[in-house]
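Query structure, 208 tokens:
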């Protein structure tokens, strides 16, 4: 269910006036990062209504092969310049734990943002990293991923469950079964919760 600070998640964040104002929430986001499993975390998720978030490029995670990956990147005052294409893939959120579904987002996005105190840069993303950026920027406008679902999409929401694999031997060849993660449809009660919590976006916001 939505956390107690859900009201903050529905409010539009204000622009960061200077880097000194950003320093503490950035550090809080980085401290939070190590305690959760996420591709990104936005300031309102820790109760700070400022336009900033941290993320890690999906490509970095995919190329790590179990090794170390780089530290999350802090993005301050992001602004969309242009988007192109469309990519449908899974969405989920720390603020809606255990609930997943598919949403349509732009395949490519270009933004302007501050990555350091004195410089505003233009950044281009594509693929799943572009989706991460869009997800976090939605948070800065009080938008949750469930707002991007159509009525039909509500029937395709799922959670994840760990179950024993059928007749799957352990790595050492023994008879012990390994576990696998399976998609499990949401209960009717959970689907109704999502339906009640979402604030559907207008049609023009769902297409690129």
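Result returned for the query:
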């Amino acid at each position: 269910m939505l956390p107690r600070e859900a009201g903050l998640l529905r409010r539009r964040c204000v622009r960061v006036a200077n880097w000194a104002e950003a320093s503490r929430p950035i550090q809080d986001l980085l401290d939070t990062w190590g305690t959760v499993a996420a591709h990104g975390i936005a300031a309102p998720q820790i109760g700070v209504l400022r336009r900033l978030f941290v993320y890690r490029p999906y490509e970095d995670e995919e190329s790590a092969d179990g090794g170390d990956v780089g530290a999350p990147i802090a993005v301050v005052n992001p602004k969309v310049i242009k988007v192109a294409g469309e990519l449908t893939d899974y969405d989920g959120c720390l603020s809606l734990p255990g609930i997943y579904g598919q949403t349509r987002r732009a395949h490519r996005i270009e933004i302007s943002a501050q990555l350091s105190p004195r410089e505003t840069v233009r950044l281009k993303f594509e693929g799943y990293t572009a989706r991460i950026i869009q997800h976090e920027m939605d948070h800065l406008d009080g938008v949750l991923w469930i707002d991007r679902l159509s009525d039909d999409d509500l029937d395709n929401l799922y959670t994840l469950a760990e179950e024993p694999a059928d007749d799957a031997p352990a790595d050492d060849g023994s008879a012990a079964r390994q576990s696998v993660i399976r998609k499990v449809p949401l209960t009717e009660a959970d689907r109704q919760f999502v339906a009640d919590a979402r604030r559907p976006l207008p049609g023009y916001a769902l297409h690129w």
